[in-house]
Amino acid sequence: MLLVVLILHAAAAMLAPVAIRHAGNRALYGLALVPAGTFVWTATQKPPVAEAYPWVPHLGMDLALRMGSLSWLMMLIVSGIGAVVLAYCARYFTEGDPGLGRFAGIFLGFATAMTGLVVSDDLVLLYVFWELTTVFSYLLIGHSGEHSAGRRAAMQALVVTTAGGLAMLVGFVLLGHGAGTYRWSEIVEGPLPAGGATAAVLILAGALSKSAIFPFSFWLPAAMAAPTPASAYLHAASMVKAGVFLLGLLGPLLALAEPWRPVALVAGIITLLLGGWNAMRQHDLKLLLAYGTVSQLGLLTIALGAGSRAAALAGAALLLAHALFKAALFLVVGIVDRLAGTRDLRELSGLGRRMPVLAVIAGLAVASMAGVPPLAGFVGKETLFTAFEHGGTTDRLVLPALVAGSALTVAYGLRFLRGAFAAKPGFAPLQTPRPGFAFLAPAGLLALAGLGLGVAASWLDGVLTPYASQFPGETEHLALWHGFGLPLLLSGAVLAAGGTMFAVQLRGRPWPGRRLPAAETVYKWLMSAVDRAAVEVTGATQRGSLPFSLGIILVVLVLFGAGTLVFVAPWPSGLRLWDTPLQLVAGAVVVSSALIAARSRRRLTAMILLGVSGYGVAVMFVLHGAPDLALTQFLVETVTIVMFVLVLRRLPVRFSARPLRASRIMRTTLAAATGLVAAGMAYVAVGGRTAMPISVDFAEPAVSYGGGHNIVNVALVDIRAWDTMGEISVLVVAATGVASLIFRRSGALQRRRAEQGNGHLDQQVQEPGPWLRAGDNPEARRQSIILQVVARLLFHTIVLFSIYLLFSGHNAPGGGFAGGLVAGLALTTRYLAGGRRELNAAAPVDAGLVLGAGLLTAVGTGAAALVAGGEVLQSALLDFHLPVLGHIHFATSTFFDIGVYLIVVALVLEILRSLGAELDRQHEVAARTERRAIERQREPV
Amino acid sequence: MTPNLVYVVVIGVLFAAGVSMVLERSLTRVLMGMILLGNGVNLLILLGGNAGAPPIVGASDAEMADPLPQIMILTAIVITLGMTAFLLALAYRSWAMSGHDEVQDDVEDQRIMRLAERDEGSGTDDTDHHEAAR
């Protein structure tokens, strides 16, 4: 059911933009039903609820979801606040706001991630959701991306929380590795695993950065750039709450680690005080609340990080109370902002009279925040005082900080109320419109809930005790009345001190202190230092010149390779000269032609020598016992030569000017060094091989499973079929790329289609002409008729041979690649003999069509296996009898090979059409234009 | 396994010749270098398996050559064909557009180099610092 909740949320997130485009702001009420339904369902559940689904079994990762008591509380907060805020958005955003669809989608996505986070039992899963909330918060904060402040704030939040998140991930891995499981419900049972202390510190870094605790506090006030409803959700229910939730969730075990408590307490206290102090200095209501949140998060960190039973109970209660009052206050600010047009508390005047209901709602929320009985905030805070009253000396030291922080909370709470609603002397009361019921109701509901929970403190105690009892320590209860004692005295003192501070500030004393976060300066310095370093490193290593960049890579290869070879590698003792002396001959051909090719400055010479060296390699393949490789290499080398000739006939005869002497020496040195290292690696790697190759076991399955005797071919279409699939995809892309580079205008493509559809463009009536007559070709004057006729005679034979290769490939050298290349060469012969019209006559189809057909055949074979109940691309053997042909033994992977064949043919056809026929045409057009220009010049004017 | 000297030498020379061609600016020459390098790598992979009779079951009684490197190389050979076709088309296009087939320096990289010379940041960190500097 938890999974269903997550899926529903995600579905709502995806539907949101569509729904809002069709139904406008009203759709938000419908969307709010998803979190609202979740709220109701959760309320009826009794934790713990757990479920698990297999996810990545190879990694031992399950989709393990578990709702314990704390998660149950967080689920209620996340879904409840989410539903209320969504309903509020319907009034907050103006009808037809173009950004609303996106906003609602991201908001619900955020809700999905947050819900997932609180119910994850698997730590890795938790991390995934954790980072998802980071991403969604980035999108929410940067909602108005056209403002640089919004972008900067979003980036800041992203960088800070992601950095913390990464530290946390390392902590999780340490923890999970030490405990042998990533399920928190299992880890929490056992003792603290080895490395637990390091893990605790790393996880704390993640949690504290997420919750904007000192020294990471600065990102949260900046995040005010988000729309107010987003801020309400971010501050009250999600994002920053994730950090304190994690503290609470992991506390039962990790508080046993030595550094956990001191770090959490010290960071919490500093944040509590600094946040409150700065809230007193803000003039923007929203910013005031933001610093208030920072302060309150400090308080929650103290409570949930303390690791004692009473403090945890108080922390859980405060978590709930804070969610209610902070969301309410943000919604109030949103209403004020929308109706009065400003959030500056120096400009707002007389709103209390204008909107009494809103003032009451804000008053209730502030009272809960300040800890006034009988509201929820009071219940939590008093229990917190009790928790630290009973503790040891450290705890007693925390107590004064709690009191001071709470007093600041009272003071800025009053400052908020006066700033928003009081009539200011010297300012005329603003004549704002009054908010309607639907705009007020969400905030009112939350404020009243704060009151209701305060009254129902004993019920709250009942539901939160199962969580608190995970911690050691004395039993404590949530109650409205704890009797006379130190806590009550402190509560009174807090209210009195806070009131005094507020009064002092009202007298006009400027609130002392400068900017809070020194950390923000550090952050900015760090970010610009990273930027500078990146510029320097990039500028030094990547100078924009291809030879330079390649040179850097090769130098690294040479240095590392040579270093490893000299210092580490085990040098083999033996060395054979050759397997057969013939290898020496082939090797000498390869070596000499490669060396001369590298020195040649003429394109054609280099190309021919390249081909010779390629054929030499093919001979080496034969001598090694690799007939398939040799066949393919021969064919590929031939096609390559044809391609080069087609292109080089248009390019200058020589390569461009020789590089400078100094760089030539550098180049040669680097080349020689790379060659040496490569030879060394070959020597050492082969000598170092001791294990049996796995392919010794290929022979038997090739016959019994693959149904063929040629192991290489069977493997290509069977066990390595995925690779082949990737490879033919590359071929398709390359063929398409070639065509799009050569056919420059879309008009060229259309003309090409027309020509292919009609092999003889000049003839109006299509009639089957005489088979071997070549005289009808207008280009025939420049071509050899004998060659053309011979090409036509041979064409069908070669194609038939290619098909033979395709089918025999399973048992003898051949297969789809070789067959396709042979068929391609048949087409090449026709083209070379008779030009592009001859090519179109030989293959009157669009190469793109053949490519598509081939890919479809290959993919179809793979998919058919899936449909038949096997794995993708699994092959099967078919045996059946046909009347004339007799017994047929057939592997389905042959179809895959047919796809390969078609794609290779189409690749060659595409090459001929582009590099051959189209270049011919472009050349003809250019020549014609030139001729006309010359003729025009000759004419007397 | 004992290494085969002919292979070791051929591999070294193919690498050296390939690298010296790749380090130039003419795209056709770079392409030729890539093809030589590719042949060298293919032989390097092939050398990883033992030589022998063709890996066809039942064709011969002698010990078979290791089929696995052959399977990998077959894929590599055909991919090289696709790449060659594409780079040739690119070289031709470059020639048709600008009259030569040389790889030009990257403009964006040069911009970063100038930033580095002036000791400036890229400004992509979006901090106040740069806002003020502008």
Structure write-up:
The complex is a heterodimer of chains A (941) and B (134). Chain A folds into 4 domains: 1-254, no CATH class; 259-423 and 434-509, no CATH class; 578-656; 709-761 and 773-941, no CATH class. Chain A contains 35 helices and 4 strands. Chain A has helices at residues 2-23, 27-44, 69-92, 100-119, 123-141, 148-179, 184-187, 196-210, 219-222, 228-236, 240-254, 260-279, 285-305, 309-340, 351-354, 356-370, 376-390, 393-421, 437-455, 457-468, 486-506, 518-541, 546-567, 582-599, 603-624, 627-648, 661-687, 699-704, 711-717, 721-742, 746-757, 785-808, 816-842, 847-867, 893-938; strands spanning 49-56, 61-67, 877-882, 886-891. Chain A has a two-stranded antiparallel ribbon. In chain A, helix 12 (260-279) packs antiparallel against helix 13 (285-305) and helix 17 packs antiparallel against helix 18. Chain A is elongated, with a radius of gyration of 39 Å. Chain B is mostly helical and 134 residues long. Chain B folds into 2 domains: 1-54 and 65-103, Orthogonal Bundle (Helix Hairpins), CATH 1.10.287; 107-134, no CATH class. Chain B contains 5 helices and no strands. Chain B has helices spanning 5-22, 27-47, 67-98, 107-117, 128-133. The longest helix of chain B is centred in the middle third of the chain and has 32 residues, at 67-98. Chain B is elongated and about 70 Å long. Mean pLDDT of chain B is 84; it is low at 128-134. Chains A and B meet through helix 6, helix 22, helix 23, helix 24 and helix 25 of A and helix 1, helix 2, helix 3, helix 4 and helix 5 of B.
What is this structure's SSE topology?
The complex is a heterodimer of chains A (941) and B (134).
Chain A: H1 2-23, H2 27-44, E1 49-56, E2 61-67, H3 69-92, H4 100-119, H5 123-141, H6 148-179, H7 184-187, H8 196-210, H9 219-222, H10 228-236, H11 240-254, H12 260-279, H13 285-305, H14 309-340, H15 351-354, H16 356-370, H17 376-390, H18 393-421, H19 437-455, H20 457-468, H21 486-506, H22 518-541, H23 546-567, H24 582-599, H25 603-624, H26 627-648, H27 661-687, H28 699-704, H29 711-717, H30 721-742, H31 746-757, H32 785-808, H33 816-842, H34 847-867, E3 877-882, E4 886-891, H35 893-938
Antiparallel strand pairs in A: 1-2, 3-4
Chain B: H1 5-22, H2 27-47, H3 67-98, H4 107-117, H5 128-133
Helix pairs in contact in B: 1-2, 2-3
